[in-house]
Amino acid sequence: MLKKVAVALTLVAAFASAQAQSNNAFYAGADIGNTKVDGLDSADKLSYGIFGGYKFNDNVAAELNVRHLAKWNSVNVSQTGLSVLGIVPVSKEFSVYGRLGYNNLSASASSGNTTVTASTSGALYGVGVNFQVNKEVGIRAEYQRPASDTKNFSVGVHYSF
């Protein structure tokens, strides 16, 4: 699956490089949110993360993210994802986007001197809205499905450079 995503990103990059590029194509940001896993209600659901990407044009971007999804007792769950974003500008400041990518979910549990880790990989998808405050700063809200039983809603801010 990771190879397919890498090939898709390469094709998108090759296509987009032929088109005129806008200023401030690179961006980086941080978000905070809430994670829900089906069947696990007694959890610290706070999520937070960082992300960075490259906007090829007004309609396509590639993004890498790292996020702490949640903590249940002594179990920490984190996410690393690589995605392509399809962007639809609604106005000069406002846009909606869809996300399709690949992510790795890692869990680690500690008890005494013993730490156990596990991970799984799979599809990542989501939808979001973005409001561009000015040329450099934007605010976004997003709903993601990092796994079939996991939902994450986050709000974030990003800076384009």
TrEMBL record:
It is found in: Cell outer membrane. One of its GO terms (cellular component) is cell outer membrane. Residues 1-20 form the signal peptide. Residues 7-161 form the Outer membrane protein beta-barrel domain. Keywords: Signal. Its main location: membrane. NCBIfam families: autotrans_barl. This is Porin family protein. It comes from Undibacterium luofuense. The lineage of its organism: Bacteria, Pseudomonadati, Pseudomonadota, Betaproteobacteria, Burkholderiales.
